[in-house]
Amino acid sequence: xxxxARFAIIDGKSIAAAIREEVKDATAGLKAKGVTPxxxxxxxxxxxxxxxxxxxxxxxxxxxxxxxxxxxxPASTPESELLxxxxxxxxxxxxxxxxxxxxxxxxxSEERIIDAIxxxxxxxxxxxxxxxxxxxxxxxxxxCTPQGCRELLxxxxxxxxxxxxxxxxxxxxxxxxxxxxLMQKAPGGNATVTVCHSRTPDVAAHTREADIVVAAIxxxxxxxADMLREGTVVIDVGINRVEDPAAKKGYRLVGDVDYAGAAxxxxxxxxxPGGVGPMTVAMLLQNTLKAARxxxxxxx
Length: 300
Prior knowledge:
Number of helices: 10
CATH superfamily of the largest domain: NAD(P)-binding Rossmann-like Domain
Strand order of the largest sheet: 1-2-12-9-8-6-7
Strand content: 15-25%
CATH class of the largest domain: Alpha Beta
Order of helices and strands: EEHEHEHEHHHEHEHEEEEHEH
Structural class: alpha/beta
CATH topology of the largest domain: Rossmann fold
């Protein structure tokens, strides 16, 4: 966490690096017991962004000592073939975690594919079984991005316990599971949670009352300075491309928060990029390690 004269930047890169080192050390201990955590990543089609994500996950696995199994399939792959591959991975003892890179090509049901994954190997925490366990407050493999948001808060000294957290966005990937995590009667929870979304009449009326705001609505610069009170902690989950002729690629990445305008009103804020993004991969590694321990009975 880097201090500014007015606010602190929650450095997701450094926090994620520390978690990856923890996973690396724990993985080495597990290997000494004869267990190598294994992650299978399935990519269907040739979406450029998805290809980058998969490469980053492979590099992260390599660095942490986690075995990485990549399965790249053409966009024309029928759903039945993808389901057969998932069943094969479910039965493979060397594979402790399975991640299907989303989005999937048109004509393939994401719901059917995700729910075909063995919940014990669902390191993205997206199966209906694991989502239900999360809501019920049972131990489970949690979705990586919301898990990363919670970890950012805890490791930067902003425990959500007793705080009013306003989450802007209700997706199954971030908003809903994060709300469930933060309201649990457990460490990292015990917050009072409000969820706003596209049908909330006056989002600002809620965010101005928040101790912590999590922006996960997918709209560039949606949260502006006038929507925050002084001293708010802001976690910006958004990653949006905006045109920028001055940039080398012709665009730049921005979050769901108007960073330049809003940062000075915050006590702490995550940048984009370099905030939540690196945490997602770190949590994926952590989940793979946890899954390997649970499946092999290896003690922590």
